[in-house]
Specification:
alpha+beta
Length: 70
C-alpha cells in the first residue's frame, strides 16, 4: 500500500501490522511522538489508551478503528 496520501495530514497517522509493530508514521506522528516512536517496533506504551488497546477489537471484529489519544 502507498502511504504517500498521509504525508500532508495535520493529524498523526500510524499504520500497524498484525503484530502491532509500526510500519509507517507520517511526519505529524513523528513530530508528536518524537524519540518514543520506532519504526518496526511495537506500538505498546506510545499512548495512554494502551491498557485497553483497540487492536483487540480490530482482530476480533475484523474492522478498522480510528483512535484519538489526546
Amino acid at each position: 500500500m502507498d502511504f504517500e496520501v498521509f504525508e500532508s495530514f495535520f493529524e498523526g497517522v500510524l499504520v500497524l501490522d498484525q503484530k502491532l509493530r509500526v510500519v509507517y508514521a507520517n511526519p505529524s506522528a513523528k513530530e508528536i511522538l518524537g524519540d518514543k516512536l520506532k519504526i518496526g517496533e511495537a506500538c505498546r506504551g506510545l499512548f495512554s489508551i494502551c491498557e485497553s488497546c483497540p487492536a483487540k477489537f480490530v482482530k476480533e471484529e475484523g474492522e478498522g478503528v480510528q483512535v484519538y489519544d489526546v
